[in-house]
Amino acid sequence: MKLISRIFLLLSINVLLLGCKLAVISVEGGEVQSRFGTCLEGNVCIIDGLPRENTAEQFIAVPNPGWFFHKWNSGERFICSDYALPECELNFGNIEDDPDLLRKFRASSEVFYLMPVFKDYPRATLGNEPRTITSEGAHQLWLQPADFLNYSYNQVAEVCPDGVCSGGLPGSSTFDLTGYLWASSEDVELLFLAYQQAGKNMLEDFKSNYTGFDLTGVSGLLSDRPKGSKQIPSVGIFNPKHYSTGEFPLYSDKTEPYPGGIWFWRPID
After folding, report:
1. CA dihedral 144, 148, 154, 160 (to 10 degrees)
2. Does the global pTM surpass 0.70?
3. What does the pLDDT look like over 116-132, one tens digit per residue?
4. Which domains does the chain have, with CATH numbers?
5. Contact 123/66 with Cβ under 8 angstroms?
6. Which ranges constitute the DSSP H helices of 53-134?
7. Which distant-in-sequence residues (6+ apart) come within 8 Å of 102 by Cβ?
8. Most CB within 10 Å of its CB: which of 134, 200, 207, 213?
């Protein structure tokens, strides 16, 4: 067992009750952070004694430069299975109110698993003009998601069937989207990567259009369902702490206006 695993084990013995174990598996491409410390890439970190009454434990998947968080791994005894956001929260709530359940957990020696899935992308670079990127010789210009608020998935799909746009959105006749593409999850992840690799905050070029987790960021509807997401509509979200694509639990109706924006881009010379 590597040093970081031993540190996790010692910390958990001191602060948690006896109970089931959680094995945090940190794979190639990033690490997992929590109040117990950081489980570094290539380590299996054992947290002993879950659950602790009336607590919520949060684990955050943090990708290395050039990598992005894809989802939490799925399988038997894997927690946050297939969840597409990098924050995995274990909320034990008022477990002490159920003595039988608490006794069962304390007596349990079962092992559960938590493993992020990271992926790397082809190198993308920022262009000379704001909101432009280059990847493998192709240049892109991106629009401001904040300029397209409160449209439903179905409204955008009518103008951009199969992701290729023609015409304008209802009430937005001043802007013709002909020649633009409704961005997929892969398109947006490449945009996020370009800013990450340049070490530049996207909010320097993109107008903020949402606040969440006490952070201001940029959000927009995607044309597809990202891998690991269970639904369309799905969104791409950036804030100064992380970026991700996936389902948005509070927005699952294709006919309902999305309070955030929409991601559009077009090829440029």
Report:
1. -50
2. no
3. 999 876 678 899 899 99
4. 3-120 (2.60.40), 124-268 (no CATH)
5. yes
6. 99-107
7. 53, 95, 96
8. 134
